[in-house]
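Subject: sequence -> structure tokens, single chain

Hey, anyone have a minute? Need the predicted structure for the following. Not urgent.
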Amino acid sequence: MALPQLEPIRDEDLPEFCAFLHAHLNPSHPADVWADAFRQDWGGEKPNNGFLIRDAAGKLVGGIGAIYAAYPVRGQRLKFCNITSWMVLDAYRTQSMRLAMAVINQPGYVFTDLSPTAVVEQSLKFLKFQPMNEARTVLFNLPAPQQRLLGAGVVSDPARLEAVLDAASLQVYRDHRQFPWLRFLAVGKGNARSLVVYKRATLKNLPSAEIVGFTHPDVFLRYLPLLGCHFLLHGLFTTRVENRLLPGRPAWPHTELKGYRNKVFRGDGVSEADVQNLYSEYVALDL
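Reply:
Had a minute. Here:
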């Protein structure tokens, strides 16, 4: 018996593939929103949008999505392939690993999955993906007048934000500002400012800021008290950030939470701290 046909997902296949994901994987994501996630232009040449399989009649019965990006890591521009939305109908589950292999056999990429299910996480670990530290640091947002007195501040107005960011941070902002579920601000002073990307969330039934990503980690860490003060003034009582993204431990009241799903990655010479949540399905979809 012939194997189901495996094909790259072309841009013209996205409406069909995303309708399949909406119907069979997660109805809460509209098909057009899913398609927009794959259409982002985040640098580098995009070879496909992942791979799909069709049965003998040409019907779509499974697929695995891929979002491509290129961004600098420690002075070197690396290419990333973010695996997402892996869905195969039950009758064709034996083809699942065939889809995964089609993606990871593409040379020259760092591969990531930042929202795997338990089954996907174990499957990717079998393919030599490494788990990332899942722990989160939770900071208690408190007043921080001392940093304001030293001239530091927070800028959240979009017009002013573009004026205070350096070129690298400005590019990150422009690459992500189209997503309505993301919020942006700059914290710091003078030429030392970190772009912070976050979502409003809930922790222990209280409003919280969930940090998605940031530029200039040392600046971010230095001005965390000021950032927490800003969030407190806007009704957010805690700030939550992944431990793996922090360059050190905050000198500020905090605790640690564990028990999150491990994100995974695979790439030579790359550490978990090098893998951003930005430029992935983690921001392109409202997860």
